[in-house]
Amino acid sequence: MKDTKIDVRKIDIGISEEHRIAIAKGLSKLLADSFTLYLMTHNFHWNVTGPMFNTLHTMFMDQYTEQWNALDVIAERIRALGVIAPGSYDEYKKLSTIPGAVGTPKAMEMVALLVAAQEATARTARDLLPLVTEANDQPTTDLLTQRLDVHEKTAWMLRSLLEE
């Protein structure tokens, strides 16, 4: 995110401009991963087939609904730090650590791809914690902790479907 745009207004919330920009860059990566995960989950909800159709269709709907709501929280935290939140497919593609799914995978392959995407999103959130702690940014710490809880729990639930 080299074209980081800062609000014209001076922001004095007790976090240096340098920290605010660095945290916003990290949150932008989290937003990109979260959006990519949302899109993947919604796609799989639409296209899942097989004996576990109903279970997976419903589970994926719960997951993409939660992810959709999280996007706003992450983007609004970026804005509160005085930085423009990324909002295009091109930006997300550049920032995301999650590769897009190709074609229409079988149901259990969808589950495995979602496990990997949930884990990647958790890593992105966790990687930002040291900087946020250094900056004494409790709201972002809280946001990251909540996201970690969701992504780790969801990955565990999905992973359990892959066990024999």
Automatic annotation (TrEMBL):
Gene3D superfamilies in UniProt: 1.20.1260.10
Pfam family, one: Ferritin
Annotated ranges, domain Ferritin/DPS: 25-163
Entries under PANTHER family matching the protein: DNA PROTECTION DURING STARVATION PROTEIN, GENERAL STRESS PROTEIN 20U
Assigned protein family: Belongs to the Dps family.
Name listed for the protein in its UniProt record: Dps family protein
Organism of provenance: Dentiradicibacter hellwigii
